[in-house]
Please model this.
Amino acid sequence: MSVKLSVAALRTYDALKDRPGARPRHSDARDPAVVAAVRSRLSELIGEYRLGAHSGQQGGTYVFWSEIAARISEGAFDDLLSQL
Model:
């Protein structure tokens, strides 16, 4: 499934909260600074061709969630866990 980059950042943040090493969730609130860091990391991965992306309507960037899930499993975002 293809999702817009901004939505992918939120879904990645939520998935990272379930990883070992992340602080337990006390609310459904998301830290905007960490979401921005996740979005930046997604953009880096796209630039390094580790994530496929395509442009959608009105110039939005879309990525495949299955590819992001694989990068999460590989630990591509583990350095951000301490910020969660």
